[in-house]
Design a protein that fits this description.
Layout (H helix, E strand, L loop, with lengths): L8 H4 L4 H6 L3 H9 L15 H8 L2 H9 L14 H8 L2 H9 L14 H8 L2 H9 L14 H7 L3 H9 L14 H8 L2 H10 L3 H6 L8 H7 L3 H13 L4 H4 L4 H8 L2 H9 L15 H8 L2 H9 L14 H7 L3 H6 L40 H31 L5 H59 L6 H14 L13
Helix pairs in contact: 4-5, 4-6, 5-7, 6-7, 6-8, 7-9, 8-9, 8-10, 9-11, 10-11, 10-12, 11-13, 12-13, 12-15, 18-19, 18-20, 20-21, 20-22
Length: 504
């Protein structure tokens, strides 16, 4: 009887480039590609390329390496997803930023017509959505059902995404191919906070509440049909008041407001109902944990930590929740977040050109879930050091390339700018010199005219003086006056006055 030999288990489970990327092992990935593995190899099960898996797992180092090696950024899965779509679904901010820098098309649509903005709004990643919109993505692009990103955010109750979209110019009154506005969808699903926000941002109260879809239904009709009690009560209250008060409209980031007030019940309700995600970020990049840490609310802070909130997220100012607690001198909050005191771990060390500082600083402005890639602290440290060394190496190569380019007669952009500035400075100097020469000639002409005027003044003064002398008469005696009188009498001639009468 022939003996049947089974293939060894190692050959059956031979690691692939996809496994290396999922594990965040950039060294193994580089070795595999060097040994002939395809950098754009497609996973048969998910039709993912290594770039897709890097975006999915948040393996930023592998993602950068793949982009440096020329991985195709336009490859799509069966669903039509690019790597940017995957990063939007997973909320990988840093990966999305890297893809954008390398020319990812943010308006690319999948098989359903969804862009990265649609998918980020669907999954509630407001900061990733803001990254996409900041890079000139269309916030009003419609999918195959004429759903805009605001429709997805309203349908899934993503209040933070809804606010971000409105801030970047999204129209909340757009309708889908069934005539539904975002308010219709929020009322259908019973998302009260989203519905309040849409009412406050609509064209008018009457327009938002009175809008009818293709079936002739208003948001109130849909709330009644699907038994959405709280939305229905809100609509009835607003209809009685005929206006929306400031308190009702002030629904911006309710979880942040609850954490700021130490309102744990409201915060727990918002998170458990899915209105916001645990790491939801406001327009300044702060999470609820930042707000609780800044005010020293330990109850909310401990609950957020128990729920798995990420305390390594940095806001727009580059501060983690622990940094915020230090700034407001909340010593107890610093200890809860793993600090020792107000003086430990100064962020000033981040400015030092030392790769060791990466031990204490993650990716700034990222909400990536660092647990997606199962790396130890040592492996992450080594990865950051490799990235720093790669950056220094690229700087040296860039300087070397610039030097070679100049020696071959090339002209760099900075050299062109310097020449342009030198020409502009020379032209300005010439214009100033010409102006100076003109002023000098003009001054000489004025001085010549001044001399002529002075000479004319002197001549006229002399004429006046001579005239004054000539007009002065010498003193006359009595004898001279008598002679003049006698002369005048002799010159007088006598005569007869005759009156002429006209003849009739």
């Amino acid at each position: 009887m022939p003996i049947v030999t089974k293939p060894p288990k190692e050959s059956q489970a031979r690691p692939t480039v996809h496994d290396a990327v999922r594990a965040g092992n950039v060294k193994e990935l580089a070795v595999m590609v060097k040994n002939g593995a395809d950098i754009n190899e497609v996973d048969k099960k998910h039709t993912f390329t290594p770039l897709h898996w890097a975006s999915h797992a948040g393996s930023l180092e592998c993602l950068h390496w793949l982009l440096w090696q020329g991985a195709d950024i336009t490859c799509t899965t069966v669903q039509g997803w690019t790597a940017a779509h995957i990063a939007a679904i997973r909320g990988q901010d840093a990966c999305m930023q890297a893809l954008i820098v390398n020319g990812a098309n943010l308006n690319a649509q999948d098989k359903r017509g969804c862009t990265s903005a649609h998918l980020a709004a669907t999954h509630g990643h407001s900061f990733t959505l803001q990254t996409v919109l900041r890079s000139a993505a269309d916030c009003n692009r419609a999918d195959n059902s004429d759903w805009r990103p605001v429709h997805y955010a309203a349908f899934h109750g993503r209040l933070g995404c809804l606010q971000t979209l409105v801030k970047w110019g999204a129209n909340v009154d757009d309708v889908d191919n069934h005539g539904n506005t975002a308010a219709h969808l929020a009322a259908t699903e019973g998302h009260l906070f989203c519905f309040k926000f849409l009412v406050s941002k609509g064209t008018s109260l009457a327009h938002t509440l009175g809008a009818r879809n293709n079936q002739g239904e208003t948001p109130k009709d849909l709330a009644q049909r699907f038994y959405k009690k709280f939305v229905l009560q809100y609509i009835e209250a607003v209809e009685k008041q005929k206006e929306v008060t400031v308190e009702q409209e002030d629904v911006a980031f309710p979880a942040h407001a609850a954490a700021f007030r130490d309102d744990l019940d409201t915060l727990r309700k918002l998170v458990e109902c899915g209105v916001i995600t645990i790491n939801e970020r406001d327009d300044k990049g702060s999470t609820p944990m930042h707000k609780a840490a800044g005010q020293g609310h330990l109850t909310c802070l401990q609950w957020l930590l128990e729920m798995g909130a990420n305390q390594d997220i940095r806001d727009s100012a580059g501060e983690t929740p622990k940094d915020t607690a230090k700034r407001f001198a909340q010593l107890a909050a610093v200890k809860v977040l793993g600090g020792v005191g107000l003086e430990d771990d100064s962020d000033g060390e981040a400015e030092m050109p030392d790769p060791r500082c990466s031990d204490r600083h993650g990716v700034e402005g990222s909400t990536d879930d660092f647990e997606d890639v199962n790396l130890s602290a040592t492996q992450r440290k080594e990865g950051r050091v490799r990235a720093y060394q790669k950056m220094e190496e690229l700087k040296r190569l860039l300087e070397f390339s610039k030097s070679n380019y100049k020696q071959l007669g090339g002209l760099l952009e900075e050299d062109r700018n310097q020449r342009k500035e030198a020409k502009e400075a020379e032209r300005a100097i010439q214009e100033l010199e010409a102006q100076l020469e003109f002023e000098r000639v003009r001054r000489e002409k004025l001085e010549s005219q001044l001399d002529e005027c002075r000479a004319e003044i002197g001549r006229l003064s002399q004429c006046l003086q001579d005239l004054h002398i000539a007009t002065e008469e010498p003193p006359q005696g009595p004898q001279v006056r008598e002679k003049k009188k006698a002369k005048n009498r002799k010159s007088d001639v006598g005569g007869v006055f005759v009156k002429r009468i006209q003849e009739k």
